[in-house]
């Protein structure tokens, strides 16, 4: 299989390495708005470099991976589908709900698969938590706690175009909660604060946020996020049921330390996770491996656009709740 990669930034470079390592991928072609960066990434992994996106599409591809800037996602996805190319796109498909719906309208009726990148669906801990819930081993689930804690904020320019903490960051938690429980969110109550850099408030964003989600069976899910967790990158999902509990993301590199001196065995044994590519390296590899199987017709699409849209609806509801300081139902944000 010959796979194209649009975008050679940090996550694109990681995807280039993963794709080049897959036995079922014969060749990888990399393109980026910065042609020199595409050549550099391609050279590191033994891939080809295309001088432009047009050249990438003309290079005889069997499938396409989109890891470009968010503003380019929708156009690239639609172009790939119209060319008959199965496409994997990092979230989001578009910067907002209206753009996502327009994309879905544009590809409706096509049998070309579009897989959206929510890598926690391929994280071993989240998959095991899902199995524990679905098997009934935990009894009935009453509470979930999910967190995404960045060690340091990204640049101000990134924040200005990110869509805000809920849409950019917590949307992964929202998707993970739906994935693990199989339930839908009915209403949210969210808040946020700014005690860090001024550029968050200047962009209308927050650097720390929390949300309480009510699911359609009465289960409560608490989600927290921050750009300031200097201890390290921390993503966990805790699931509590009437008969037991489990936690995903707790290992010897989770940046947690006991408050007293009685738990030395609970202290991290290795360096804390530095960023998402570190924490989810295996999940990203499994995700792209799954995409190649989807593109080859060997498996069903594990995350179609409809799944991405549901997580985005929850993020939109949380942002509205934060801004208006009230409970928001999902019906208020659905189109």
TrEMBL record:
* Gene3D superfamilies named among the record's database cross-references: Dihydrodipicolinate Reductase, domain 2, NAD(P)-binding Rossmann-like Domain
- Give the InterPro entries listed for this entry: Gfo/Idh/MocA-like_OxRdtase_N, GFO_IDH_MocA-like_dom, NAD(P)-bd_dom_sf
Q: Where is the signal peptide?
A: none
Q: Which spans does this entry mark as compositional bias, Basic and acidic residues?
A: 251-264
One GO term in the molecular function aspect is:
oxidoreductase activity
Query: From what superkingdom does this record's organism come?
Result: Bacteria
Q: Please report the stretch or stretches of sequence annotated as the GFO/IDH/MocA-like oxidoreductase domain.
A: 127-246
> Any idea which UniProt keywords this protein has?
Oxidoreductase
Residue segments, region Disordered: 251-270
Q: Where is the Gfo/Idh/MocA-like oxidoreductase N-terminal domain?
A: 1-118
Report the PANTHER family cross-referenced here.
Answer: BINDING ROSSMANN FOLD OXIDOREDUCTASE, PUTATIVE (AFU_ORTHOLOGUE AFUA_2G10240)-RELATED (PTHR42840:SF3), NAD(P)-BINDING ROSSMANN-FOLD SUPERFAMILY PROTEIN-RELATED (PTHR42840)
Q: What is this protein called?
A: Myo-inositol 2-dehydrogenase
Recorded source organism is Actinomadura rubrobrunea
């Amino acid at each position: 299989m010959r796979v194209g990669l649009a975008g050679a930034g940090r996550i694109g470079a990681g995807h280039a390495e993963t794709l080049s390592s897959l036995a079922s991928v014969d060749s990888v072609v990399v393109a980026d708005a910065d042609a020199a960066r595409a050549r550099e990434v391609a050279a590191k992994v033994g891939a080809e470099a295309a001088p432009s996106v047009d050249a990438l599409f003309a290079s005889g591809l069997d499938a396409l991976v989109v890891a470009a800037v968010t503003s380019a996602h929708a156009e690239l996805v639609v172009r790939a589908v119209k060319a008959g190319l199965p496409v994997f796109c990092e979230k989001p498909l578009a910067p907002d709900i209206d753009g996502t719906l327009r994309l879905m309208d544009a590809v409706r009726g096509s049998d070309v698969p579009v897989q959206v990148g929510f890598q926690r669906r391929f994280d071993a801990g989240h998959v095991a938590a899902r199995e524990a819930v679905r098997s009934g081993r935990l009894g009935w689930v009453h509470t979930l706690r999910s967190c995404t804690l960045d060690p340091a904020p990204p640049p101000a320019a990134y924040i200005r175009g990110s869509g805000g903490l809920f849409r950019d960051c917590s949307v992964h938690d929202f998707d993970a909660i739906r994935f693990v429980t199989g339930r839908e969110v009915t209403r949210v109550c969210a808040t946020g604060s700014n005690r860090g850099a001024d550029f968050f408030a200047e962009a209308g964003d927050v650097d720390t946020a929390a949300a309480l989600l009510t699911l359609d069976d009465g289960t409560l899910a608490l989600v927290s996020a921050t750009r300031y967790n200097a201890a390290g990158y921390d993503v966990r999902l805790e699931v509590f049921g009437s008969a037991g509990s489990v936690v995903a993301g707790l290992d010897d590199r989770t940046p947690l330390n006991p408050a007293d001196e009685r738990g030395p065995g609970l202290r991290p044994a290795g360096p804390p996770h530095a960023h998402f590519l570190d924490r989810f390296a295996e999940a990203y590899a499994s995700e792209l491996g799954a995409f190649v199987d989807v593109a080859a017709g060997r498996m069903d699409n594990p995350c179609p656009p409809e799944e991405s849209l549901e997580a985005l609806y929850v993020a939109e509801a949380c942002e509205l709740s934060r801004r208006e300081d009230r409970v928001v139902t999902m019906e208020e944000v659905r189109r």
